[in-house]
Specification:
It contains 13 helices and twelve strands. The protein has about 325 residues and is an alpha/beta fold.
């Protein structure tokens, strides 16, 4: 029997609910900007984020050294100080590296780890199973599987997910397939104790309507309070409020992915004065057309105060 709470025949390994922010990683002069990162963590918590996810895709994890990865997770755990759960990014296309990052996150005090399906290698379903099993066997933390075919090319099937959920530490999924029907399929296969978090802001409303538990959100970097309110409305089955907030956020969901993420969200964060726009190659700053679209979407969401609005024109 997998580790976790057992309610009748339902196994519950995690109860993550609501809006979890997939944090950006601020840089300054080519190095990590610790001060900006810690300030972002405090701001996110103050704005109502239900949880934080450092060192994931939005945190430019492929360009972080293992030492930088460790520092980001440690700073997040330290600065959040138990106020919200921390799900540490720990994925890699190398199983050995993913295991090392997972062990590192556990030592840092993370509440769970987020492990992406291996990108570039294009493993089979059996290869995916063995990858996650190796990580499962290396740590005692709950593991959220990150299924994002758009970046990793491979799609972890419901059947393979069911096999993984039988393991001790596999607790749920960050689903970025964009297929809201997957929520029902996975619930029928794994039960209601399987923790399902959306990884796609644009389809999060449909995901939640189908019975999802929350979202690991890119948009929440820029609009943490609105994203938290949206998730609260969804969890309370307040469809009218959820749709109104979705309409307010929808242009931002679109604009933040007009170019490769996290380039647009880094620009948006710079507009809010939260961090520099700096990215690491091969990512580059967004074009002027995207800047315009992001500014317009931020205005539509009501995110600019008068000072910032005047500054950007």
């Amino acid at each position: 029997m997998p580790r976790g709470l057992t309610r009748g025949t339902i196994v519950v390994k995690t109860i993550f609910r609501g809006s979890f922010t997939a944090l950006v990683t601020p840089f300054r002069n080519g190095s990590l900007d610790e001060s900006a990162f810690r300030q972002i963590v405090d701001w996110q918590v103050a704005e109502g984020a239900d949880g934080l996810v450092p060192a994931g895709t939005t945190g430019e994890s492929p360009t972080l050294s293992q030492e930088e990865h460790r520092l980001i997770v440690e700073w997040c755990v330290d600065q959040s100080a138990g106020r919200v759960p921390v799900i540490a990014g720990a994925g890699s296309n190398s199983t050995a590296e993913a295991m090392a990052l997972s062990i590192q996150a556990e030592k840092a005090g993370a509440d769970a780890i987020l492990v992406v399906t291996p990108y570039y290698s294009k493993p089979t379903q059996e290869g995916l199973y063995r990858h996650f099993k190796a990580i499962n066997d290396a740590v005692s933390l709950p593991i959220i599987v990150y299924n994002i075919p758009g970046r990793s090319v491979v799609d972890l099937s419901v059947d393979t997910m069911k096999r993984l959920f039988e393991l001790e530490n596999i607790a749920g999924v960050k689903d970025a397939t964009g297929n809201v029907a997957r929520v029902c399929e996975q619930r029928l296969a794994m039960g209601t104790g399987f923790n399902q978090l959306s990884g796609d802001d644009a389809t999060a409303l449909g995901f939640m309507t189908n019975g999802g538990h929350g979202c690991i959100s890119v948009t929440a970097n820029v609009a943490p309070r609105l994203c938290a309110k949206f998730q609260q409305a969804c969890l309370k089955h307040d469809h009218v409020t959820a749709v109104a907030l979705q309409d307010r956020l929808a242009p931002l969901h679109t604009a933040l992915f007009l170019e490769t993420s996290p380039a647009p969200v880094k620009f948006a964060m710079s507009m809010l004065g939260k961090c520099a726009e700096t990215l690491r190659l091969p990512l580059v700053p967004v074009t002027e057309a995207t800047r315009l679209a992001v500014r317009q979407a931020m205005r539509h969401a009501g995110l600019f105060n008068e000072r910032i609005t005047a500054a950007v024109g």
